[in-house]
Amino acid sequence: MSTLKVDAIRHNSATSDAITTASDGTCTAKLTSVGGAGLSHRNVLRNGAMTIHQRVDNTTGINDTQNYFVADGWYYNHGANGTVTASHETDSPDGFSNSIKVTVTSAGTSSGYAQFYQKIEGQDLQRFAKGSSGAKKFAVSFYIKSKVTGNFVLDLYDGDNARSCQQIYTVNQSQTWERKTVIIPADTTGAWDNDNNASLQIYWKVFAGTQSGTLHTTWQAHTTNADRGVGQVNAIASNGDYVQITGCQLEVGDTATSFEHKSYTEEIAKCQRYYYLIYRRGSSSDGNICIGGVGSCYTATSIYIDLGFPTQMRVAPTLEVPSGSTKFQACVAAACQTFDNIGIVHSQKNCSGIYGTLSSSRTAGQVGNTMFQTSQWSEGDRCAFIAEL
Protein backbone atom coordinates (compact mmCIF):
# COMPACT_ATOMS: atom_id res chain seq x y z
CA MET A 1 0.00 0.00 0.00
CA SER A 2 1.32 3.44 -0.92
CA THR A 3 0.69 6.78 0.79
CA LEU A 4 0.05 10.09 -0.96
CA LYS A 5 1.53 12.91 1.08
CA VAL A 6 0.20 16.38 0.27
CA ASP A 7 -0.53 19.61 2.11
CA ALA A 8 -3.58 20.46 0.02
CA ILE A 9 -5.83 19.40 -2.87
CA ARG A 10 -7.17 21.97 -5.37
CA HIS A 11 -8.88 21.75 -8.76
CA ASN A 12 -6.59 23.04 -11.50
CA SER A 13 -8.96 25.94 -12.28
CA ALA A 14 -9.84 26.80 -8.66
CA THR A 15 -8.37 29.72 -6.73
CA SER A 16 -8.49 28.04 -3.30
CA ASP A 17 -7.87 24.60 -1.82
CA ALA A 18 -10.74 22.13 -1.49
CA ILE A 19 -8.90 20.09 1.15
CA THR A 20 -6.04 21.09 3.42
CA THR A 21 -4.16 18.63 5.62
CA ALA A 22 -2.54 19.13 9.01
CA SER A 23 0.52 17.55 10.60
CA ASP A 24 -1.65 15.77 13.20
CA GLY A 25 -3.34 13.71 10.48
CA THR A 26 -6.56 15.72 10.31
CA CYS A 27 -7.89 17.71 7.36
CA THR A 28 -10.22 20.57 6.58
CA ALA A 29 -12.57 20.19 3.61
CA LYS A 30 -14.95 22.58 1.85
CA LEU A 31 -18.04 20.46 1.27
CA THR A 32 -21.17 21.49 -0.59
CA SER A 33 -22.88 18.10 -0.62
CA VAL A 34 -22.58 14.52 0.62
CA GLY A 35 -23.44 11.74 -1.81
CA GLY A 36 -25.17 14.25 -4.08
CA ALA A 37 -27.42 15.55 -1.28
CA GLY A 38 -27.16 18.66 0.86
CA LEU A 39 -25.12 18.73 4.04
CA SER A 40 -28.23 19.20 6.16
CA HIS A 41 -31.78 17.89 5.83
CA ARG A 42 -30.51 14.95 3.79
CA ASN A 43 -32.91 12.54 5.42
CA VAL A 44 -36.30 12.53 3.71
CA LEU A 45 -37.83 10.33 6.43
CA ARG A 46 -39.30 11.95 9.50
CA ASN A 47 -38.55 10.75 13.01
CA GLY A 48 -35.97 8.27 11.75
CA ALA A 49 -34.49 7.88 15.25
CA MET A 50 -37.97 7.02 16.61
CA THR A 51 -37.64 9.81 19.21
CA ILE A 52 -41.18 11.16 18.97
CA HIS A 53 -44.13 9.02 20.07
CA GLN A 54 -47.13 11.17 20.87
CA ARG A 55 -49.76 8.42 20.82
CA VAL A 56 -49.03 5.27 22.84
CA ASP A 57 -45.97 3.31 23.94
CA ASN A 58 -47.26 -0.06 22.75
CA THR A 59 -50.27 -1.81 21.26
CA THR A 60 -50.96 -5.38 22.37
CA GLY A 61 -53.13 -8.08 20.87
CA ILE A 62 -52.65 -7.08 17.20
CA ASN A 63 -54.17 -9.80 15.02
CA ASP A 64 -55.87 -7.87 12.21
CA THR A 65 -54.96 -5.89 9.09
CA GLN A 66 -55.20 -2.41 10.63
CA ASN A 67 -52.34 0.12 10.65
CA TYR A 68 -50.90 0.86 14.10
CA PHE A 69 -48.63 3.77 14.97
CA VAL A 70 -45.54 2.68 16.91
CA ALA A 71 -43.85 6.10 16.68
CA ASP A 72 -44.81 9.31 14.94
CA GLY A 73 -44.71 8.72 11.18
CA TRP A 74 -44.18 4.97 11.59
CA TYR A 75 -46.86 2.37 11.00
CA TYR A 76 -46.88 -1.31 11.77
CA ASN A 77 -49.18 -3.19 9.39
CA HIS A 78 -50.07 -6.76 10.33
CA GLY A 79 -51.86 -8.91 7.79
CA ALA A 80 -50.38 -12.16 9.05
CA ASN A 81 -52.00 -14.82 11.17
CA GLY A 82 -51.07 -14.85 14.82
CA THR A 83 -50.92 -12.09 17.43
CA VAL A 84 -48.17 -9.55 18.07
CA THR A 85 -47.33 -6.51 20.17
CA ALA A 86 -46.03 -3.37 18.43
CA SER A 87 -44.02 -1.19 20.80
CA HIS A 88 -41.80 1.85 21.21
CA GLU A 89 -38.58 0.83 22.96
CA THR A 90 -35.50 2.34 24.60
CA ASP A 91 -33.31 -0.57 23.49
CA SER A 92 -31.23 0.86 20.64
CA PRO A 93 -27.73 0.89 19.13
CA ASP A 94 -25.02 3.30 20.31
CA GLY A 95 -25.89 6.89 19.50
CA PHE A 96 -29.65 6.31 19.65
CA SER A 97 -32.23 6.29 22.44
CA ASN A 98 -35.26 4.62 20.87
CA SER A 99 -36.44 1.98 18.42
CA ILE A 100 -39.70 0.41 17.27
CA LYS A 101 -40.37 -3.29 17.72
CA VAL A 102 -42.83 -6.05 16.85
CA THR A 103 -42.91 -9.13 19.11
CA VAL A 104 -44.86 -12.36 18.59
CA THR A 105 -47.14 -13.28 21.49
CA SER A 106 -49.10 -16.02 19.72
CA ALA A 107 -47.62 -17.56 16.57
CA GLY A 108 -49.83 -18.15 13.54
CA THR A 109 -49.59 -19.92 10.21
CA SER A 110 -47.39 -18.92 7.29
CA SER A 111 -49.82 -16.71 5.36
CA GLY A 112 -50.28 -12.97 5.02
CA TYR A 113 -47.66 -10.28 5.55
CA ALA A 114 -46.22 -7.92 8.19
CA GLN A 115 -44.19 -4.75 7.86
CA PHE A 116 -43.09 -1.39 9.27
CA TYR A 117 -43.57 1.50 6.88
CA GLN A 118 -43.70 5.26 6.36
CA LYS A 119 -45.51 7.46 3.82
CA ILE A 120 -43.80 10.52 2.28
CA GLU A 121 -45.29 13.59 0.64
CA GLY A 122 -44.57 14.14 -3.06
CA GLN A 123 -43.24 17.67 -2.50
CA ASP A 124 -40.52 16.24 -0.23
CA LEU A 125 -39.35 13.83 -2.95
CA GLN A 126 -38.64 16.23 -5.82
CA ARG A 127 -34.89 16.09 -5.12
CA PHE A 128 -34.83 12.54 -6.59
CA ALA A 129 -35.95 13.88 -10.01
CA LYS A 130 -37.89 10.67 -10.53
CA GLY A 131 -39.39 10.30 -14.00
CA SER A 132 -36.72 12.43 -15.68
CA SER A 133 -33.45 11.77 -17.50
CA GLY A 134 -31.63 13.12 -14.45
CA ALA A 135 -33.28 10.73 -11.97
CA LYS A 136 -31.24 10.00 -8.83
CA LYS A 137 -30.62 6.81 -6.88
CA PHE A 138 -32.04 6.22 -3.41
CA ALA A 139 -29.69 5.43 -0.50
CA VAL A 140 -31.48 3.79 2.43
CA SER A 141 -29.67 3.06 5.69
CA PHE A 142 -30.95 1.78 9.03
CA TYR A 143 -30.25 -0.36 12.08
CA ILE A 144 -32.07 -3.65 12.56
CA LYS A 145 -32.17 -6.24 15.32
CA SER A 146 -33.96 -9.55 14.81
CA LYS A 147 -34.17 -12.85 16.65
CA VAL A 148 -34.47 -14.60 13.28
CA THR A 149 -31.63 -14.25 10.77
CA GLY A 150 -31.81 -14.49 6.98
CA ASN A 151 -32.90 -12.44 3.98
CA PHE A 152 -35.22 -9.45 4.42
CA VAL A 153 -36.93 -7.28 1.80
CA LEU A 154 -36.91 -3.47 1.62
CA ASP A 155 -39.81 -2.38 -0.59
CA LEU A 156 -40.45 1.04 -2.17
CA TYR A 157 -43.86 1.74 -3.70
CA ASP A 158 -44.63 4.74 -5.92
CA GLY A 159 -48.33 5.42 -5.37
CA ASP A 160 -48.56 8.18 -7.97
CA ASN A 161 -47.52 5.89 -10.83
CA ALA A 162 -48.18 2.40 -9.42
CA ARG A 163 -44.53 1.36 -9.64
CA SER A 164 -42.38 -0.53 -7.15
CA CYS A 165 -38.82 -1.64 -6.50
CA GLN A 166 -37.41 -4.05 -3.89
CA GLN A 167 -33.98 -5.10 -2.68
CA ILE A 168 -32.78 -7.96 -0.47
CA TYR A 169 -30.53 -7.43 2.53
CA THR A 170 -29.35 -9.99 5.10
CA VAL A 171 -29.54 -10.05 8.88
CA ASN A 172 -26.47 -12.05 9.89
CA GLN A 173 -26.54 -12.23 13.69
CA SER A 174 -29.43 -13.06 15.97
CA GLN A 175 -30.48 -10.45 18.55
CA THR A 176 -27.68 -8.07 17.56
CA TRP A 177 -27.96 -4.53 16.21
CA GLU A 178 -26.63 -4.36 12.63
CA ARG A 179 -26.43 -1.34 10.33
CA LYS A 180 -27.64 -1.98 6.79
CA THR A 181 -27.34 0.02 3.57
CA VAL A 182 -29.62 -0.60 0.59
CA ILE A 183 -29.25 1.26 -2.72
CA ILE A 184 -32.36 1.58 -4.88
CA PRO A 185 -31.77 2.37 -8.58
CA ALA A 186 -32.98 5.61 -10.17
CA ASP A 187 -36.26 5.59 -12.07
CA THR A 188 -36.61 7.65 -15.26
CA THR A 189 -40.29 6.70 -15.57
CA GLY A 190 -43.14 8.31 -13.63
CA ALA A 191 -42.61 11.69 -11.96
CA TRP A 192 -43.95 12.24 -8.48
CA ASP A 193 -46.70 14.81 -7.93
CA ASN A 194 -45.38 17.96 -6.31
CA ASP A 195 -48.04 18.16 -3.61
CA ASN A 196 -48.86 17.21 -0.02
CA ASN A 197 -50.26 13.75 -0.75
CA ALA A 198 -48.48 10.42 -0.18
CA SER A 199 -46.33 9.65 -3.23
CA LEU A 200 -43.90 7.12 -1.75
CA GLN A 201 -44.36 4.33 0.77
CA ILE A 202 -41.25 2.56 2.04
CA TYR A 203 -41.67 -0.83 3.73
CA TRP A 204 -39.38 -2.81 6.03
CA LYS A 205 -40.93 -6.26 5.68
CA VAL A 206 -40.74 -8.73 8.56
CA PHE A 207 -42.90 -11.40 6.95
CA ALA A 208 -44.35 -12.09 3.49
CA GLY A 209 -46.20 -15.39 3.46
CA THR A 210 -47.72 -15.08 -0.01
CA GLN A 211 -44.84 -14.99 -2.50
CA SER A 212 -44.86 -15.59 -6.23
CA GLY A 213 -43.25 -14.15 -9.33
CA THR A 214 -39.99 -12.21 -9.29
CA LEU A 215 -38.75 -9.49 -6.99
CA HIS A 216 -38.55 -6.10 -8.73
CA THR A 217 -34.91 -5.16 -8.23
CA THR A 218 -35.41 -2.35 -10.76
CA TRP A 219 -38.45 -0.07 -10.90
CA GLN A 220 -41.36 -1.77 -12.64
CA ALA A 221 -45.11 -1.37 -13.00
CA HIS A 222 -46.85 -2.81 -9.96
CA THR A 223 -49.20 -5.69 -10.76
CA THR A 224 -49.50 -7.78 -7.59
CA ASN A 225 -48.35 -7.68 -3.97
CA ALA A 226 -47.21 -11.31 -4.19
CA ASP A 227 -43.96 -10.38 -5.97
CA ARG A 228 -43.01 -7.60 -3.53
CA GLY A 229 -41.82 -9.96 -0.78
CA VAL A 230 -40.14 -12.77 -2.68
CA GLY A 231 -37.25 -14.14 -0.59
CA GLN A 232 -38.38 -12.60 2.71
CA VAL A 233 -37.71 -14.80 5.76
CA ASN A 234 -40.52 -15.32 8.25
CA ALA A 235 -39.11 -13.30 11.14
CA ILE A 236 -42.26 -13.70 13.27
CA ALA A 237 -42.77 -17.47 13.02
CA SER A 238 -42.58 -18.40 16.71
CA ASN A 239 -43.57 -17.02 20.09
CA GLY A 240 -40.93 -14.55 21.26
CA ASP A 241 -39.63 -13.74 17.78
CA TYR A 242 -39.11 -10.01 17.29
CA VAL A 243 -37.79 -7.39 14.88
CA GLN A 244 -36.63 -3.87 15.79
CA ILE A 245 -35.50 -0.95 13.62
CA THR A 246 -34.17 2.57 14.19
CA GLY A 247 -31.78 5.09 12.65
CA CYS A 248 -33.70 4.97 9.37
CA GLN A 249 -32.52 7.34 6.65
CA LEU A 250 -33.50 7.90 3.00
CA GLU A 251 -31.33 10.24 0.94
CA VAL A 252 -30.28 11.05 -2.61
CA GLY A 253 -27.35 9.20 -4.16
CA ASP A 254 -25.55 5.89 -4.16
CA THR A 255 -23.75 6.47 -0.84
CA ALA A 256 -25.36 6.20 2.58
CA THR A 257 -23.99 8.84 4.92
CA SER A 258 -23.99 8.71 8.70
CA PHE A 259 -27.39 9.23 10.31
CA GLU A 260 -28.50 12.86 10.42
CA HIS A 261 -29.49 13.52 14.01
CA LYS A 262 -31.92 16.40 14.52
CA SER A 263 -32.84 18.28 17.67
CA TYR A 264 -35.97 17.25 19.54
CA THR A 265 -37.47 20.67 18.78
CA GLU A 266 -36.99 20.26 15.04
CA GLU A 267 -38.19 16.66 14.97
CA ILE A 268 -41.39 17.22 16.94
CA ALA A 269 -42.28 20.25 14.80
CA LYS A 270 -42.01 18.04 11.72
CA CYS A 271 -44.20 15.39 13.37
CA GLN A 272 -46.80 17.95 14.47
CA ARG A 273 -47.47 18.71 10.81
CA TYR A 274 -49.33 15.37 10.81
CA TYR A 275 -50.41 14.89 14.43
CA TYR A 276 -50.67 17.59 17.09
CA LEU A 277 -51.26 16.17 20.57
CA ILE A 278 -52.73 18.57 23.10
CA TYR A 279 -53.06 16.08 25.95
CA ARG A 280 -52.73 12.33 26.59
CA ARG A 281 -53.78 10.81 29.92
CA GLY A 282 -51.11 8.68 31.53
CA SER A 283 -51.46 6.17 34.35
CA SER A 284 -52.62 8.85 36.82
CA SER A 285 -54.70 12.02 36.73
CA ASP A 286 -53.02 15.39 36.12
CA GLY A 287 -55.91 17.32 37.63
CA ASN A 288 -57.61 20.01 35.58
CA ILE A 289 -55.48 21.00 32.56
CA CYS A 290 -56.10 24.17 30.57
CA ILE A 291 -57.06 23.32 26.99
CA GLY A 292 -55.04 26.23 25.70
CA GLY A 293 -57.66 28.65 24.47
CA VAL A 294 -60.23 30.96 26.06
CA GLY A 295 -63.78 29.71 25.65
CA SER A 296 -66.68 31.94 24.70
CA CYS A 297 -70.38 31.14 24.83
CA TYR A 298 -71.50 31.20 21.22
CA THR A 299 -75.04 30.61 22.42
CA ALA A 300 -76.49 30.12 25.90
CA THR A 301 -75.79 26.37 25.69
CA SER A 302 -72.69 26.10 23.49
CA ILE A 303 -69.06 27.04 24.01
CA TYR A 304 -66.44 27.76 21.36
CA ILE A 305 -62.64 27.58 21.76
CA ASP A 306 -60.18 28.79 19.11
CA LEU A 307 -56.81 26.98 19.06
CA GLY A 308 -53.69 27.83 17.08
CA PHE A 309 -51.20 25.15 15.99
CA PRO A 310 -47.44 25.29 16.66
CA THR A 311 -46.72 24.47 13.01
CA GLN A 312 -48.78 24.41 9.83
CA MET A 313 -50.49 21.06 9.48
CA ARG A 314 -50.47 19.11 6.21
CA VAL A 315 -54.20 19.65 5.64
CA ALA A 316 -57.08 21.02 7.70
CA PRO A 317 -57.14 18.44 10.51
CA THR A 318 -59.78 16.28 12.13
CA LEU A 319 -60.21 16.11 15.90
CA GLU A 320 -59.55 13.15 18.20
CA VAL A 321 -61.24 13.39 21.62
CA PRO A 322 -62.50 10.87 24.17
CA SER A 323 -66.26 10.49 24.50
CA GLY A 324 -68.10 11.17 27.74
CA SER A 325 -70.05 13.99 29.35
CA THR A 326 -67.70 14.81 32.25
CA LYS A 327 -64.29 15.06 30.60
CA PHE A 328 -64.35 18.76 29.69
CA GLN A 329 -65.08 21.72 31.94
CA ALA A 330 -65.77 25.41 31.32
CA CYS A 331 -65.65 28.07 34.01
CA VAL A 332 -67.73 31.02 32.81
CA ALA A 333 -68.76 33.98 34.99
CA ALA A 334 -67.40 32.29 38.14
CA ALA A 335 -69.50 29.17 37.55
CA CYS A 336 -68.04 25.90 36.31
CA GLN A 337 -69.89 23.23 34.35
CA THR A 338 -69.01 20.35 32.11
CA PHE A 339 -69.50 20.30 28.35
CA ASP A 340 -69.66 17.43 25.85
CA ASN A 341 -70.62 16.65 22.24
CA ILE A 342 -67.18 17.95 21.29
CA GLY A 343 -66.69 18.77 17.63
CA ILE A 344 -64.50 20.78 15.28
CA VAL A 345 -65.46 23.91 13.36
CA HIS A 346 -63.60 26.22 10.99
CA SER A 347 -60.75 23.74 10.63
CA GLN A 348 -57.71 25.20 8.84
CA LYS A 349 -54.03 24.28 8.52
CA ASN A 350 -52.92 26.89 11.07
CA CYS A 351 -55.78 26.89 13.55
CA SER A 352 -59.11 25.29 14.33
CA GLY A 353 -62.05 25.89 16.60
CA ILE A 354 -63.68 23.28 18.79
CA TYR A 355 -67.10 23.52 20.33
CA GLY A 356 -69.19 21.71 22.92
CA THR A 357 -72.60 21.66 24.57
CA LEU A 358 -72.73 23.12 28.09
CA SER A 359 -74.41 21.15 30.85
CA SER A 360 -76.21 24.31 32.03
CA SER A 361 -77.15 27.55 30.31
CA ARG A 362 -74.99 30.65 30.39
CA THR A 363 -75.30 34.04 28.73
CA ALA A 364 -74.24 34.21 25.09
CA GLY A 365 -71.02 36.20 24.73
CA GLN A 366 -69.59 35.35 28.14
CA VAL A 367 -66.01 34.06 28.21
CA GLY A 368 -64.08 31.80 30.57
CA ASN A 369 -61.41 29.15 31.01
CA THR A 370 -61.78 25.72 29.45
CA MET A 371 -60.12 22.65 30.91
CA PHE A 372 -59.68 18.90 30.65
CA GLN A 373 -60.99 17.14 33.76
CA THR A 374 -58.31 14.47 33.56
CA SER A 375 -59.61 12.64 36.64
CA GLN A 376 -62.50 11.57 34.40
CA TRP A 377 -60.23 10.40 31.55
CA SER A 378 -59.07 6.81 31.06
CA GLU A 379 -55.41 5.96 30.60
CA GLY A 380 -54.49 6.51 26.95
CA ASP A 381 -57.33 8.96 26.22
CA ARG A 382 -56.10 11.72 23.89
CA CYS A 383 -57.11 15.09 22.55
CA ALA A 384 -55.30 15.74 19.27
CA PHE A 385 -55.60 17.15 15.76
CA ILE A 386 -54.90 14.70 12.92
CA ALA A 387 -53.64 15.41 9.39
CA GLU A 388 -51.88 12.13 8.61
CA LEU A 389 -51.12 10.91 5.10
Task: Explain this structure.
The strands form 5 sheets. Strands 5-6-9-14-11-12-15 form a 7-stranded antiparallel sheet, with no helix packed on it. Strands 4-7-8-16-10-13 form a 6-stranded antiparallel sheet, with no helix packed on it. The protein contains 1 helix and 26 strands. The relative contact order is 0.14. Helices cover 2% and strands 43% of the residues. The mean pLDDT is 89. The chain is globular. It folds into 2 domains: 58-270, Jelly Rolls (Sandwich); 275-386, Sandwich (Adenovirus Type 5 Fiber Protein (Receptor Binding Domain)). The chain is mainly beta and 389 residues long. The longest helix has 8 residues, at 264-271.
Distance between the termini: 53 Å
Count of DSSP E strands? Answer: 26
Supply the CATH superfamily name of the largest domain. Galactose-binding domain-like
Name of the top-level CATH class of the largest domain: Mainly Beta
Instruction: Please state the average pLDDT score.
Output: 89
Classification by helices and strands:
mainly beta
Note the total helix count. Answer: 1
**CATH third-tier fold name of the largest domain:** Jelly Rolls
Inertia-based shape:
globular
Approximate strand percentage: 35-45%
Low-pLDDT runs of 5+ residues are: none
The oligomerization state is: single chain
Percentage of helical residues?
under 10%
Could you describe the largest sheet, including whether it forms a barrel? 7 strands, antiparallel
